[in-house]
Amino acid sequence: MRRWLPWCGFGVLFLGVGLLAELSWRHARLCLPEIGRRQLEPTVGQGVLLGTLGGFRTVVADFTWIRGYVLWEQKTDRAGTELLMRTACALDPRSRFFWENTGLSIANDMAHWEIRRRGGYAKVPRDIQEHVFRTYARRGLDLLDEGIVSTGGSPALLASAALVAELKLKDLALSADYYRRAAETRGAPWFAARFAAANLWKLDRRREAYNWYRAHWLKTLRLEEDGSPDDLKELRDMEQELRLPWLARLPRQSWEMAQPGLPAMPSENVTTKPSAGGQSRK
Amino acid sequence: MKAALSRCLWIARITFLEAIRQRFFAFLFVLGAVLVLSSSAIRVFDFGHSELKFIADFGFGGLFLFGSMLGVVMTAQLFFAELDNRTALTLLAKPLGRGEFLVGKFLGTWAVLGVFVIALVGLLGVMLGWRAAELAALAAERRLSPPEFDAAGLGLFALLQWLRLGVVVAMVLTVAAAARTFLFAVVVGALAVLAGQLQWLSQDLLLKPAEAGLGRAALWLLTHLLPNLQQFNLGDALVLAPHQVHDGTLPWVFASGLAYIVAFLALASFLFRRREI
User: Fold this and answer.
1) A133-137, A193-197, A254-258, B210-214: least confident range
2) pLDDT value for B204
3) Is pLDDT of A279 > 80?
4) Cα(B42)–Cα(B190) distance, rounded to whole angstroms?
5) Inter-chain contact B58–A22, Cβ cutoff 8 Å?
6) Of the partner residues A17, A25, A27, the one whose CB lies closest to the CB of residue B200
7) Residue A238 belongs to some domain of the structure
8) What range does the domain containing A210 cover?
């Protein structure tokens, strides 16, 4: 028994240190980018392991991307391309570039490769083609959704997802939702709000489109340096088409007066441009 | 106690001088330095990251790879050189405990790795600082916000890496104290480092709720016996995004690293005391 006593002592010591390390890891892992274990497992034997061990993560992600890109150019090995591209995303989940290009590649290109692999457009029936297109678009969109979460809601990824939803899935409501989320994010692309409203408009949810666009213009776009005159013009067109009464319309902006072709409005509705809005268009 | 400390430092001094003169150390240091200096030239291969992140990752990778190689090979080599040349017998015939001998070896090797880490992090700091200043000037011209670079964070990262290498050295000394050959110590030491770097996978599995069972108990035991070396890789956050480092993280990591060093050294001393030389 005495022979085993020191070993038991060391066992207890290491378990104690292990508990301390567990507490330490709970704190430390919050500062580390999440590593997608499942995505990395299939490529572990190809040098990717080095990236997960310590430094070199960015570098290994870049070289994995290059390998995936070479396969993408050959347009034959769909599985290999997707695997390497997804691995690059998993290695560096905070990089918008990898998510965006992988998502768009899956959604836009890989369905064509698949149809070509099955014998070409002439051989594959139309409805099967449509099914393949939709399947890959859905997969691309799922990947973009993952990227949106990993990058903390990148507006560029939201806009890409909106594009896939609109052009590939023909789902205007979903696309409008992505565009709306992109527009409400810091650093949103200039077209996001307009496209969100336009897609809702196309769905015949005209009043909803106008109300959201108007609220967004008042809250955000009006404060841009130029006051977002193109968006205001879109809003004016919507007001015309909705035949809104004058008092229900957006108040006329002081800098809007000089615009030719605008209908006259009651003078009490005139507001000046906010100070944060910068220079007047005059 | 004071005499024991003095004996440890004496062994440490000799070990340091012996290690710093090694060609292997110089070779790996030059390789690491070339890697850090070339990061700026090969940033054309970078996609979608900030330039500073790419340069920093190159430096962190070099520090991890060459530091680990140095930690494993040099520790085993210095330990077995004493046994093979019979100098250990001469030393231990004097009033010097085996534990003191091991602690001295550890301190000497750790000090050499400290020189390695300081030199490489210094080079990396110069590269990052130079490029950060250029990018800040460009950003000011374009009225953009300058990239974030925290030199103090780089200093903290250097300390963390030194601590990680300390755990590696203590671990390899433990293996060497029980091993019969240099090759065995190097191979098992390298595998232990690899396992330590991947230990977070099992730790993450344990943090997820699951039913208790024999497999989970074995996983728990294994996870708590192996050191988690991934927790020292906070470079990205410390250097390029200091706001991402939560309060209280660093003291926990430092405490955990030091605890592992003490535990491994205690085990190594125990094993070495039972060993026939």
Assistant:
1) A254-258
2) 77
3) no
4) 29
5) no
6) A25
7) yes
8) 205-282
Q: Which has the minimum average pLDDT: A72-86, A99-113, A195-209, A255-269?
A: A255-269
Q: How confident is the model at residue A37 (pLDDT cuts 50, 70, 90)?
A: low
Digit-coded pLDDT (tens) for A47-61: 556 656 666 788 888
Residue from B38, B165, B231, B243 whose CB has the most chain A CBs within 10 Å, to mutate:
B231
| CA A69 from centre of chain | 21
Phi/psi for B82 (5° steps) reads -65, -40
Q: Do B54 and A97 touch (CB under 8 A)?
A: no
**Both structure tokens of A22:** 């567990």
Residue A15: both structure tokens together: 């378990």
- The residue ranking higher by pLDDT, A54 or B92, is B92
> Would residue A254 count as lying in a domain?
yes
Q: Does A36 touch chain B (CB under 8 A)?
A: no
Cβ of B252 within 8 Å of Cβ of A24? The answer is yes
| Total tally of structural domains belonging to chain A | 1
Amino acid at B154: L
Which of B64, B229, B247, B252 has the highest number of chain A CBs within 10 A, making it the mutation to test binding with A? B252
Q: b vs e for B188-222, b when ≥16 Cβ sit within 10 Å of the residue's Cβ?
A: bbbebbeebbbbbebbbebeeeeeeeeeeeebbee
A206-254 per-position pLDDT tens digit? 999 999 999 998 888 888 877 788 888 889 999 988 888 888 888 887 7
CA distance A62 to chain B (A): 6
Pick the more confident residue, B27 or B248: B27
Residues 30-89 of B with CB under 8 A from A: 45-49, 53-54, 57-65, 68
Q: How many domains does the structure of chain B reveal?
A: 1
Q: How many whole angstroms separate alpha carbon A22 and alpha carbon A16?
A: 10
pLDDT, mean over chain B: 89
- CB B237 to CB A31 under 8 A? yes
Dig out the tokens for A36 from the structure.
Answer: 């997608």
The span from the CA of A91 to the CA of A68, in Å, is 13
B1 confidence band (pLDDT: 50, 70, 90): confident
Q: Using a CB-CB distance cutoff of 8 angstroms, which residues of chain B are in contact with residue A97?
A: 47-49
Q: Which domain holds residue B89?
A: 2-273
Which among A18, A97, A98 has CB closest to B223?
A: A18
Q: Which residues of chain B neighbour A62 with C-beta distances below 8 Å?
A: 45-47, 49, 54
The answer to the question of residue A161 being in a domain is no
What was the ipTM of the complex prediction?
0.85
To the nearest whole percent, how much of chain A has pLDDT over 90?
48
Q: Does residue A67 form part of some domain?
A: no
What is the rounded distance in angstroms from the CA atom of residue A214 to the CA atom of residue A200? 13
Comparing alpha-carbon positions, the chain A residue that sits nearest to B200 is A25
